[in-house]
Amino acid sequence: MNSANSTNPADSTNPANNTQPEKTKAVTALLPIFAFIKPYKLVVAGAMLALLLTAGINLSLGQGVKYIVDHGFIAGSSEQLGNAILVLIGLIALLSIGTFSRFYLVSWLGERVSADIRKAVFNRIVQLHPSYFEENRSGELMSRLTTDTTLLQSIIGSSLSMALRSTLMLIGGLIMLLITNLKLTLLVVAFVPLVLAPMIISGRKVRRLSAHSQDAIADISTYAGEIIQNIKVVQSYTHEQREKNAFEGEVEKAFKVAKKRIAQRALLIAAIIFLTFSAISVMLYVGGMDVLEGNITGGELSAFVFYAIMVAMSVATVAEVYGELQRAAGSSQRLLELLATKSDINSPQTPLPFSQEQEPEIVFKNVEFNYPSRPDMPALKNINLTIPKGKIIALVGPSGAGKTTMFELLQRFYDPQQGQISFNGNNITQLDLTDLRKTMGMVPQHPVLFSSDVWHNIRYGNVDASDEAVIEAAKRAHAHEFIEKLPEGYASFLGEQGVRLSGGQKQRIALARAILKDPQILLLDEATSALDAQSEFHVQAALNELMKDRTTLIIAHRLSTVVHADLIVVMDQGQIVDIGDHKSLLASDPLYQRLCALQFDKAS
Ligand SMILES: Nc1ncnc2c1ncn2[C@@H]1O[C@H](COP(=O)(O)OP(=O)(O)O)[C@@H](O)[C@H]1O
Ligand SMILES: [Mg+2]
After folding, report:
1. What's the topology of domain 447-518?
2. CB–CB of 556/526 below 8 Å?
3. CA of 403 to the centre of ligand 2 (A)
4. Whose CA is nearest to atom 11 of ligand 1?
5. 579 φ, ψ to 5°?
6. CA-based, 20 to 30 A from 511: which of 8, 84, 168, 567?
7. Residue 528's pLDDT is what?
8. Probe target for ligand 1 pocket from 136, 368, 369, 371, with the most ligand atoms within 8 Å of CB
9. C-beta of 446 in contact with ligand 1 (< 6 A)
């Protein structure tokens, strides 16, 4: 997809593709995750106990094997054999209980911790300043919430305990080997590097390939997501075949990467099996000779083989898990980065008191602003504007003039680089963010609906509102009538983004939401493009109702709205070019005259 970047493995702008620091991203990057494990100390202790128990039993099983061979088979005593088997079954029962506890507790921990991290990450995300989301693709944030946390869950919930268990077994197994037979142990130890070498070499390759594989899968889902969302445009332009081909390309690319990874892995497994079993065969030969010569017993040799296999398996597990831990270290780092991201827009430590009583007087003073993503292009220049209480102020101007940006600054989605906006003489940066936003009701240009029913969508304006209040708001928004005609009335599901409604209907639902909030200041980004004459009549009537007796800022596109405004602010290219009422502006302002002649810009 990103051919310009694919040649550059150190593409540091995209952490998901960042394979470069994989080596340096030591497993220590996982350490901060322990802060999330800390609250569950008891569970950890229980898991550790179970771990020790099972490792201990596993190790003692080798002694059982030795006993059975020497005292049962070799001695030819059926009674001793029976006893030995009984003891063995007892041990195995204990082992099962230990394994159950370990598995349950450790998996529980993995699920619990990843749930906690998921919540923490989401809590962080919803608090972040909007410009963060312009710089970070939503798909990437989603993948942190889901893929990265899932990876951590599998690490904490299994890999970590596997690593611990295998380390215990490895150390214990080696000690038991030494106790059982020194000469053979040295033989085993000599073989270990032989087995480890290919693992380490090819493990690194496998890891890089699997990271690529994951990126490829992420690309696939991003691609498919976009097509599904815009299916009507795709079909209308009859691009189905093109999209099929493009998607096929993505899928095949992912498959190619996966194929390489699989081949690498299969080779690795085969090599390890060959080396391990060759080593064991050699050992069997050397040990077998010793048994034949009477230097050691058959039981000793059996126990020895048992421990040798255990050690080999542990080494393999540790090496494999280590690779996974490194991968998880990447996830952990990304998650912690996100968790540590501070919002640019915050409430002050000690906010000024906020009078809830009456609507405030709003003053823009020398405001200069550019969007963070466009540092060289001012969106607002030298804005000075006083918005009196209880009046209707219309913002008019061509598309791109900066009208919507005024609303964004008022709600503190961004802070201006220079100048200030004040409520009743207090800079809004000195006020509590929640208090500030509670005073305002916003009806955006493109109404936003959630994939739920009408109740939920209107009640978003005031979650405590009664059913009656919701219906009342809908009536005042001229929405009640069409809502009643929906298949299930207010309980009708509106589909994702409200796809089951027309533009005008969506807008009236958004209006009802604002009416229910009953804000002191109303911000209306009036959109007419989506409305037919009938809806326009209804929306206009609803607006008139809504604007009564409160400070209203309206980005107006209809002459009818503008004429009713107490004050008209004409904007162009980020600046206020004129302020006045309809009559005086019509007489003096050429831009206003032009806008009126065009019946305002219907599309902006
Ligand atoms: N999120 C954004 N990031 C960067 N530039 C933006 C963003 N939103 C708007 N702009 C730019 O800021 C200018 C003013 O936009 P806006 O306030 O939306 O105009 P309008 O008067 O049509 O509502 C335009 O040039 C627009 O391209
Ligand atoms: Mg706009």
Report:
1. Rossmann fold (3.40.50)
2. yes
3. 6
4. 379
5. -135, 135
6. 567
7. 60
8. 371
9. no
